[in-house]
């Protein structure tokens, strides 16, 4: 199947072609026709399969083929995302593929000044990409009206629920017209997502392109058993001995991420951290430097698991296993995207044996293990309790300052002379 088979207009097809794409991914091939029909949609697909283009392309088509009833430029589409980085990437997709449509869009998020965002909204928009906190903040100041919204998108809905945005989402829904098209995209169909869908969607079309909670077969997964005190030396050894040039490393806590960066820098491994306590400028710089190849290691907490979009990322390391098993799937989904191969390595100490069993139960496979010479774990080591994420994140569950979101990061340019891409994962 080609994009030319999906009922998209010439301006949109031209933009797609200029990016070097010809064939849709499976989620795009199914979701684009579904969105064009005008009905509600509940879609699940693995991270990295192209959910973003799966809704941005048909939304652009619908807006260009049906003018606002008043003839004026009205805010007709609202796309909600859980994180700043994801919001920026969705906006990048809208701008890239809508550049010949004449449609106007902007992205709003916290962590940066609101005045430029307010001016962009006041200038007239067709599409608004937003994180819930900043949107509610501007709504409370009467800077944005949602009365003309025709299409609502909840992107990464499972992550929004996990981050405690349900109350914010309900406030936003209350300000929307009752008659509208609702599109709910999620990595998994959890019980909570199904409950949200039941209250939000009207006879939705259901799309699922991969087994729920499955991992991408293009990702080689490996466990390295190691003592907790030897994780940092083992990681440095793996990076240097294998000559890894680009590795995304996940830690359980913000403090752990900062500590690991300090340790890696002492080893001569260029690295930076990205997490919620970092300023927006620091997060943007870290991500941009990592994409540009200026950093070997980008150390992140789970909030960044679905906010980092890097073409052909070769390595992901779970320095700490996640407390929530589903997060393992989201973390390693940063690699092995759109047909490329990737490697996901997990450094597992005795404290995490139960977490590993839970992950293997979720993904329905036993992960191979390899002990690295010189880093053999102590067979007599005693497990220590690990603080659960629900305890760690008590502050994030409390009422938050208005404004949560991300900043744009430039798309890594394609290498000259590279062959045309045949599918994409934006």
Question: Can you offer a commentary on this structure?
Answer:
The protein is α/β, with parallel strands linked by helices and 426 residues long. It has 2 domains: 206 residues, 3-Layer(aba) Sandwich (Rossmann fold), CATH 3.40.50.300; 173 residues, P-loop containing nucleotide triphosphate hydrolases (Rossmann fold). Helices cover 36% and strands 14% of the residues. It contains 16 helices and 13 strands. The strands form 2 sheets. The protein has a 7-stranded parallel β-sheet with strand order 3-4-2-5-6-1-7, sandwiched between helices. Strands 8-13-12-9-11-10 form a 6-stranded parallel β-sheet, with helices on both faces. Strand 3, helix 5 and strand 4 form a beta-alpha-beta unit. Helix 6 crosses helix 8. It is globular.
Largest sheet: 7 strands, parallel
Report the average pLDDT across residues: 84
SSE series: HHEHEHEHEHEHHEHEEHEHEHEEHEHHH
What general form does the structure show? globular
The number of domains is 2
Strand content: 5-15%
């Amino acid at each position: 199947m080609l994009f030319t088979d999906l009922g998209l207009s010439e301006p949109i097809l031209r933009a797609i072609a200029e990016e070097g794409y010809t064939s849709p991914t499976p989620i795009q091939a199914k979701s684009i026709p579904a969105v064009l029909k005008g009905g509600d949609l509940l879609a699940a697909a693995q991270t990295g399969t192209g959910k973003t283009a799966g809704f941005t392309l048909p939304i652009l088509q619908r807006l260009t083929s049906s003018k606002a009833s008043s003839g004026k430029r009205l805010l007709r589409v609202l796309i909600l995302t859980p994180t700043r980085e994801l919001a920026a990437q969705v906006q990048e997709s809208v701008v890239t593929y809508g550049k010949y449509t004449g449609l106007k869009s902007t992205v709003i998020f916290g962590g940066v000044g609101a005045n430029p965002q307010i001016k962009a909204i006041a200038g007239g928009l067709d599409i608004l990409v937003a994180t819930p906190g900043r949107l509610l903040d501007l709504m409370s100041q009467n800077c944005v009206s949602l009365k003309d919204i025709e299409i609502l998108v909840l992107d990464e809905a499972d992550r929004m629920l996990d981050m405690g945005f349900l109350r914010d989402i309900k406030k936003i829904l209350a300000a929307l017209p009752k008659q509208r098209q609702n599109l709910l995209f999620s990595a998994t169909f959890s019980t909570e997502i199904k409950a949200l869908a039941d209250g939000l969607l009207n006879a939705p079309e259901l799309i699922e392109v991969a087994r729920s909670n499955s991992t991408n077969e293009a990702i080689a997964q490996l466990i390295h058993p190691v003592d907790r005190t030897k994780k940092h030396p083992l990681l440095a050894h793996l990076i240097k001995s294998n000559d890894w040039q680009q590795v995304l490393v996940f830690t359980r806590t913000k403090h752990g991420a900062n500590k690991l960066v300090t340790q890696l820098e002492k080893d001569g491994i260029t690295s930076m951290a990205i997490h919620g306590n970092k300023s927006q400028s620091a997060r943007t710089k870290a991500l941009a430097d990592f994409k540009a190849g200026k950093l070997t290691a980008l150390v992140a907490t789970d909030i960044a698991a679905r906010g980092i979009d890097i073409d052909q990322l070769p390595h992901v390391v779970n320095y700490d296993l996640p407390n929530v098993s589903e997060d393992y799937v989201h973390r390693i989904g940063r690699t092995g995207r759109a047909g490329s191969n990737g490697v996901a390595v997990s450094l597992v100490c005795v404290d995490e044996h139960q977490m590993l069993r839970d992950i293997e139960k979720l993904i329905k496979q036993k992960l191979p293990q390899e002990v690295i010479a010189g880093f053999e774990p102590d067979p007599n080591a005693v497990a220590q309790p690990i603080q659960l994420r629900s305890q760690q994140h008590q502050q994030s569950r409390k009422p938050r300052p208005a404004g949560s979101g991300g900043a744009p990061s430039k798309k890594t340019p394609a290498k000259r002379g590279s062959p045309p891409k045949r599918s994409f994962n934006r």
